[in-house]
Structures are given as C-alpha cells and as structure tokens.
Amino acid sequence: MTAVAHVLHEGYARADGVASTVGLIQDGDHVVVVDPGMVADRAMILDPMEQLGVAPVSVTDVVISHHHPDHTVNIALFPPARVHDHWAIYERDQWTDRPAENAAVSQHVRLMETPGHTPQDITTLVDTADGVVAFTHLWWYEGIEGDRRATDLDSLFRHRERVLQLADLIVPGHGPAFEVSR
Question: Measured between alpha carbons, how far is 142 from 5 in angstroms, rounded to an integer?
Fold first, then answer.
C-alpha cells in the first residue's frame, strides 16, 4: 500500500494575482494538506476536498513548504491538524522541535530540507503507486531557470538536483505538476 497524492488547486504567479499550489495526500489514516495558501476563494481548496470525500476536520497534518503567506494563509481551515515546517511540529498549544530532514509525516510521506527560495524551505516527498511525488517550492513552475525571490540560488540549484534524483513528478509552488525526465 502506498499514498495517493492530489493537487487540489493549481497555483499561479501572474501580474493579476498569485496563488499557491495546494496538495492533498491520503496515506492510510493520515490526510495531509500541503501549502494551504492564497487562493481566489477558499472554495477552491474545500470543493475539491469535498469531491474526494475529505472533510476539513479529517485533515491530520498540514505541511508548509516555507513561511510566506501565499503558502500559509489558509492553515486555519484545518484546526485539529498538526502543522509541520522546517524545524518543528505544532499541535494545539504544543511546539515540538525537530529538524525536517527525513522527518516522517506518515508511513509514505517524508520531509526534506531544501533551502534556496528561503532558508527554511522544505519539500514533501510522497511514495505513490506511480513513483515519488515532490511538493516543493524549488520551482515556481516548470521551466523556470532561477527564482527572482530566492535567498540563495546556489542552494536552490543544489537542492533541485537532490529532488530530481528522487522524484518522478514535481508539484511546484505556483504551477502545474510536471514529470521528471531522466
């Protein structure tokens, strides 16, 4: 048995607006939302969840790739969930320190530290029946060469190489998923 990964909302970064790509992972009893950030309307997150038969209260975990509001602003849609970031897990009033590198969210979902866009970026790796899916902000969208907002381009490019060695499908921060060609 492996996890199933879905894209709830395909993000974008345009002159007329910005929205994060929002993911949902089902792994046994774990329901994980990745980057519940800015969208034009919260229904763009909640309606696809409803179509999958997933209620917001059933979300067990939320992973945020980094602390920019366009990736975090809708965390409160999932009040009972544990929140994972680059250095801790937050649950109710508990803050549990832990590094993200190789941290397991569930049996088939793990985190990888991938600084570059920000010093605190992480990538969520999901083992699925079709291969490894990487939810990441190492790319805004397919084909982007650099990152005009990156804090460390050398680190970003190094971590892209790490992810490309592991992933079969990349789900970037602001665009459609794309397959890794080797």
Answer: 18
Q: Would you state the torsion angle of the CA atoms of residues 6, 7, 9, 15, taken in this order, to the nearest 10 degrees?
A: 170
Closest CA to 101 of 109, 92, 93, 110: 110
Q: Give the number of domains in the chain.
A: 1
Q: Is the pLDDT of residue 81 over 90?
A: yes
- Structure confidence by residue, pLDDT tens digits, 15-31: 999 999 999 999 999 99
Residue 42's φ and ψ, nearest 5 degrees, are -60, -25
Q: Which two tokens stand for residue 20?
A: 């994060």
Q: How far apart are CA 112 and CA 34, in angstroms?
A: 14
Domain that holds residue 40: 4-179
